[in-house]
Design goal:
This protein is mostly helical. The protein folds into three domains: 2-98, no CATH class; 135-201, no CATH class; 213-428, no CATH class. The chain contains 16 helices and no strands. The protein has helices spanning 2-9, 14-27, 32-42, 46-67, 74-81, 135-153, 157-170, 178-188, 194-199, 204-259, 270-274, 277-308, 315-339, 361-382, 387-412, 416-428. Helix 2 (14-27) packs parallel to helix 4 and helix 3 (32-42) packs antiparallel against helix 4. The protein is elongated. The protein starts with a helix and ends with a helix. Residues 64-116, 120-125, 262-268 and 423-431 have low confidence and may be disordered.
Length: 431
């Protein structure tokens, strides 16, 4: 029988080698220690090596006790050959106990030898046996095993792992079946304990869902960071523009005083003349955040309109494209305000009294025109449209946005219906 255990050590299956180590250790054979030491030198699996080292330590620790035991007693001989733990115990579960474990100290005296076997120590009492497997469960497990094999032949590894995992759950005895073990090794690649790897497998849908959630969270975070950066761009634009407006307003006030014109003509810029720097910064901050929010709202409405007329764009990509173009236009306008001094924006040179030869308003008009074309082009391309269909999308969006603003204003101020004739009639009289 001991030779059978030695042959079992040469098995390619990890489970059989593990069982052979336990049986050799519990056999009481005088060559058990030498066999395990020789086996340790050639074994490559780290788990099996750890179990072998534990078995060798157990045999070396208990060897003096075994030598001093009374050989003449038949009961003592039977106790020495009795297994110290169930053969199915796994690594790390305390298969091989030392003579005096720390958590269960052995008594100083030996129990009296009687005709009845002494009860085993409490820490060596085997666990209750698992529930018996019914014939129905065995049949279902066999079906799952066959399904796993067929799925593996078809290249559906993830589904095969799930089917084999279900087979092990229905019938744990399959874990000791050579065919099931070989299939598990083939599906898991042969690394580590294939049975444990099969039991740890999860549904491909769960993996895909987790990957999609992680990807969505990353995309949303990147979008939020980019919108925050664009908001800073808008705030900088308004900060530059408001400061320039204050300088222009001061120059216009001086121009009005010089020419004798009424300063009431420049009331639109009085706010910037009288505002402090902190007030202008607060206004720039408010306007920058407002432009971002309103820009995202308009871009979202534009995306919906584009979908309705046959667009195929992605929402976040579309919003990102529209907001980038918008920020580029604002940056170009802000650069014009920053480059040209306040005096160039006045109708005349205050120093000479001569009309200004060049007005930056021409550049602003060019930027607005080119920016509108780029806006139409990039917004349309994000939806897979040409130029004219992109124009139609923007026109429809402008109409829809105006209607929404009117409805919101109507809900916020119901009295606007009574003011409507006073608003519309002056406009009609301008024809």
């Amino acid at each position: 029988m001991f030779e059978h255990y030695i042959r079992q050590l040469k098995s390619q299956q990890v489970l059989e080698r593990r069982q052979a180590i336990v049986k050799i250790t519990n056999s009481g054979h005088p060559e058990a220690l030498a066999v395990l030491e020789k086996f340790l030198r050639i074994e490559q699996d780290p788990e099996i090596r750890a179990l072998t080292e534990k078995a060798i330590h157990y045999l070396k620790t208990n060897k003096p006790a075994a030598a001093s035991a009374p050989v003449a007693s038949s009961h003592a001989s039977s106790q020495m050959n009795k297994p110290v733990a169930p053969a199915a115990d796994k690594i790390g579960s305390g298969v091989f106990m030392t003579a005096k474990p720390d958590h269960h100290p052995a008594p100083d005296h030996h129990p009296a030898v009687t005709g009845q076997p002494a009860p085993p120590p409490a820490h060596l009492v085997p666990l209750p046996p698992p529930k018996p497997v019914t014939e129905q469960q065995k049949k279902l497990a066999k079906g799952k095993l066959d399904t796993a094999m067929q799925l593996q032949l078809n290249g559906k590894i993830d589904e095969a792992l799930l089917s084999l995992k279900r087979a092990f759950e229905l019938n744990p005895e399959l874990e000791r079946d050579s065919f099931a073990y070989g299939l598990a090794s083939a599906l898991t690649g042969g690394g580590g304990d294939p049975i444990a790897l099969v039991k740890q497998s999860s549904k491909p849908e769960d993996k895909a869902t987790k990957a999609l959630v992680a990807q969505g969270a990353t995309t949303a975070l990147n979008f939020a960071i980019e919108m925050a950066i664009l908001t800073i761009v808008f705030i900088m634009y308004f900060a530059i523009s408001y400061r320039k407006f204050a300088e222009i307003a001061a120059g216009l006030s001086q121009y009005a005083m010089t020419t004798g014109a009424s300063s009431a003509s420049f009331t639109a810029l009085d706010l910037f003349t009288s505002s402090t720097r902190n007030q202008l910064l607060v206004s720039a901050l408010t306007q920058g955040i407002g432009v971002t929010i309103s820009g995202i709202a308009q871009a979202f409405l534009m995306f919906v309109v584009g979908i309705l007329i046959g667009g195929t764009g992605n929402l976040l990509d579309f919003l990102r494209t529209v907001m980038r173009v918008t920020a580029g236009i604002y940056l170009a306008i802000g650069a014009v305000f920053l480059i040209f001094p306040a005096s160039s924006w006045l109708p005349v040179d205050l120093a000479t009294g001569q009309p200004t030869t060049f007005s930056p308003f021409i550049l602003l008009g060019i930027i607005a025109f080119v920016g509108s074309i780029l806006w139409v082009y990039f917004a349309g391309r994000a939806h897979g449209f040409g130029f004219f269909k992109g124009c139609a999308m923007i026109v429809l969006t402008s109409i829809g946005f105006s209607i929404l603003v009117f409805i919101v204003a109507l809900l916020a101020r119901p009295s606007i219906t009574t003011d409507l004739p006073g608003i519309i009639m002056p406009l009609l009289s301008l024809r």
